[in-house]
Structure prediction request, 95 residues.
Amino acid sequence: MSDTPVKQQSTAAFYGQAVASFAVAMAATAIGIFQLNADAWVRGFLAIAVLYLVTSAFTLAKVIRDRQEAGQIVSRVDQARLEKLLAEHDPFEKL
Prediction:
């Protein structure tokens, strides 16, 4: 009676590419900060700034995902209510 959507999952190749991309980006940034011709406190500040940026990006991605999943749950509840009303409706019943 109801079509339950299939939960989308990432492929192993996509997951691996995302992890590898993240690792390469972090390594390149760390090497760049380490090779920077500046005082240690400047390099330390840049390293902390990069870590803060990464944690903020992860938090933002989680918040967006949670909001999307919550919207899907509300949509499914509304759909179930509509299906119940349609199932109980008898068009030949006298008013």
Remarks:
- Helices lie at 12-35, 40-88.
- The chain is about 75% helix and 0% strand.
- Residues 40-88 form the longest helix (49 residues).
